[in-house]
Specification:
Blueprint: E1 4-11, H1 17-30, E2 36-43, E3 49-51, E4 84-88, E5 97-100, E6 106-108, E7 114-117, H2 128-136, H3 145-152, H4 154-163, E8 171-175, H5 189-198, E9 205-209, E10 219-221, H6 227-238, E11 243-248, E12 252-261, E13 269-270, E14 274-278, H7 291-296, E15 301-304, H8 311-327, E16 332-341, E17 346-352, H9 362-370, H10 374-385
Parallel strand pairs: 1-2, 1-7
Antiparallel strand pairs: 2-3, 3-4, 4-5, 5-6, 8-11, 9-10, 9-11, 12-13, 12-14, 12-16, 14-15, 16-17
Length: 387
Amino acid sequence: MRRKRIVVLYGGRADEHPISCVSAAGVLGAMDTDRFEPVPIGITKEGQWVVSPVDPRTYSLGGASQDGAAGSTSMPEVIASGARSVVLDTGKGSEGFFIREQDGSLSSLGHVDAVFPVLHGPYGEDGTVQGLLEMMGVPYVGCGVFASAACMDKHFTKTLLQAAGIPVVPGITVDVRGFDADDGFGRDARKVLDSIHAAHLRYPLFVKPSRAGSSFGVSKLEREDDERELAAALFEASQHDWRILIENGVDAREIECAVLAPVKGGEPRAALPGEIVLDRRSDGDDQFYDFDSKYTDSEASHVQVPADLPQSVLDEVRRIAIRAFKAVDGAGLSRVDTFVGANGDVVVNEINTMPGFTPISMYPKAFEATGLSYTGLITELLDAVMV
């Protein structure tokens, strides 16, 4: 039987570029190569599609830093130097992938059965790549154009969930395009504070870009009515997006639920909910789940599946996660992140349509704990889109 040829897209232009590289390393390492022939295609930070001379399976975040340079102690990056570029012909569908050789000639990559876009953040998880693959008529893993775009934007995710009667974190959205960057938003902070008061938001507050991931640009505000602290947080978030959310800090536990619906139109199923346990909180640290806790500091946190919660609460998280997935027209896979209060109330924080996919990421770990192995999960996702 012919092996199915699967293009694994990784890298990308977003801040999550290195996370995508590591997720792709995990997918390529776990893919059943008796049934599938992986074809890795990297996307550089400049947006160039390449067949990289670096084997993506070697990527890791161990001992990483955020300087973006290539090397053993820095974030992994798709490097274009020495790479052959990939050219797309959208009119040729599954035969539309070509390699530009060093002499400028084009050679066909051959038939492609499906694409696994292991891309996080803008230009990958936001509907752009999904729209391109739709135009080419190439099957792909994951949510479609609408769900990808809507869930990439936390503001519109909340709008959709609220319309469906699903509880979300109280907050406001701020447009900073008219703010004065020369003084770091200092003069604009007062009117934002007025909006915070009008919305009756409670401190601590979290300030975060609407369209970014992996905790990039997120700040926690502790001091009530501190204009300077607010201005700095808004300015930091504005480096990633002009639309910024300011939300209540919630006295709750962060519980994540993996949802899987590989068959188009099929009923979604939810894995056992898991929790990222912030280990330094037990030492008295006022720690929140920032970039370092997620990726670069192995002693900052660990994954616990199932979360240490009563069965009734775990069931409620799974029920709401499936409702949220359906409300945004999800497909394939997503991770629904929730807050669970001391009284068992469940509030949805956000939805990740292409969650971290490394072997130790929450999404595959949750399904492994539910009885579906990492390799089995990848196989199920791929089989479904090639029906």
